[in-house]
Amino acid sequence: MFEALTDRFSDVFRRLSGRGRITEKNVQDAMREVRTALLEADVNYEVVKKFCDDVLEKASGQEVIKSLHPGQVMVKLVHDELIELMGPVDPRIYYVSPPPTIILMAGLQGSGKTTTCGKLARHCIRRDGKKPMLVACDLQRPAAVEQLGIVAEQASVPCFKIEGEKNPVKVARKSIDWARKNDRDVVIIDTAGRLHVDEEMMKQVQDISRAVNPHQIYLVCDSMTGQDAVNSAKEFNERLELDGVILTKFDSDARGGAAISVKAVTGKPIKFIGVGEKMDALEEFHPDRMAGRILGMGDVVSLVEKAQQEFDEKQAEKMQEKMAKGRFDLDDFLGQMKQMRKMGPMKDIMKMMPGMGGGQMEGMGLGDDEVKQMEAVIQSMTAEERGNPEIIDGSRRRRIARGSGTQPQDVSGLVKSFNMASGMMQQMAGMGTKDRMRMAQQMGQMGMSGATPKFKVKKRSKRLTKKQRDRRKRKRKK
Ligand SMILES: Nc1nc2c(ncn2[C@@H]2O[C@H](COP(=O)(O)OP(=O)(O)O)[C@@H](O)[C@H]2O)c(=O)[nH]1
Ligand SMILES: [Mg+2]
């Protein structure tokens, strides 16, 4: 996802961080680079101009110039401005009573409408426990109805179609009766698109819309087409009462211009992003998380959520219990590294972690091979050592290194990472989303400035941690 932009931003801010004190001129130079980066990412020109003016104005106060960490202040300003640009967004779907809730999908040909119908249906099932169905109103191409049928099958929902019918308005109308009779509470209508906005297509979608009065109208846009997507969104928005945009093919979007400009240009927020061809590849759009990703600040919230989805629930429960009691040990750590590997290539996951965006990963040395090495080291420890890594002294270290075919410093490195992870987990276990975000931000800044981690967490969990530490001490004394 928009690696180029993230790399550029990282560069700009790293350079700023390197200076002890910055002048107004430095800020201006940095903003000039930010501007170029945004334009290269295919962000709408007007949007870039306003964005940079706004940030400069906010930065021109004494605050930035005198600040101890000017780079961090700038990151925060740009971060907040990005959030403002893309939000606010409420990605929830509001269902009507009595059912069914009618959702109309519009968009150009190839934008991903048909695929997204299936994904949205899965989303309604998974997130809200609904019983959706799809409706085949793309009668332009004979294969379109068949394609929707396949998508519906993949999403395990029924697909309503009328063989031989040429009029999409009729199909749409009849589908609503069918939904009522068959106990479906969400009706998702797929429509025909064209390669470019044209009158006939617009009229057809409008006719369908007037006939069924949808509760939500989503425009599906291909993020890879950048400003073209944004311009077509503007045209659609003038003809239909859009509720939001679904930006597809995010997984292949290297620039990010559409994501950043859609809201500012059309006034309509992005509600979902498509991140792959499979039925579960749809995510809610959260401007704060997106801003973090764009700036390479990582996205702990998404990471935690992804982990939660993939984790075996029982194991997660056990882990939480252990964390709360401060008994998270090296075995758990290993289990977690393995879980993380299950979630996808290590590299993708690490990219979502703060301060590890883009190229910084390579230097960190945390690829699959390193995880295997960790495994070897932990397996060479005794059960006692795994439970209480504090007892690992020089001679134990040498023994473990010999047993695992590593060096003693690899062993101490691992214990260090474990200590950091377990500290973080204890803090996160007692945190709400807001605190997690805050921690992500702090960690992001840490990654860029290279400073030692020092997290400020709300008092309650701080006290908890101290209690846990005391309990551990007492246990050791026994
Ligand atoms: N990588 C990727 N491909 C997608 C995504 N959404 C749709 N596609 C692909 O884009 C192509 C066009 O999608 P389709 O649903 O037929 O578009 P429609 O013409 O608007 O109905 C298909 O090959 C889809 O698999 C996405 O989020 N990521
Ligand atoms: Mg289609």
Strand order, main sheet: write it out.
3-2-4-1-5-6-7-8
Q: What's the main sheet like?
A: 8 strands, mixed
Number of helical elements: 23
The CATH superfamily title of the largest domain: P-loop containing nucleotide triphosphate hydrolases
Structural features, described:
- This protein has helices spanning 3-17, 24-40, 45-59, 62-66, 70-86, 113-128, 142-154, 168-181, 199-212, 227-239, 257-266, 287-294, 300-310, 313-324, 330-342, 346-352, 360-364, 368-379, 383-387, 394-404, 408-429, 433-449, 459-477, and strands at residues 101-107, 132-137, 159-160, 186-191, 216-222, 244-248, 270-274, 282-284.
- The chain is of the alpha/beta class and 478 residues long.
- Helix 3 (45-59) crosses helix 5.
- The site of guanosine-5'-diphosphate (GDP) has 19 residues, from helix 6.
Short note summarizing the structure:
Helices cover 61% and strands 9% of the residues. With 478 residues, the chain is of the alpha/beta class.
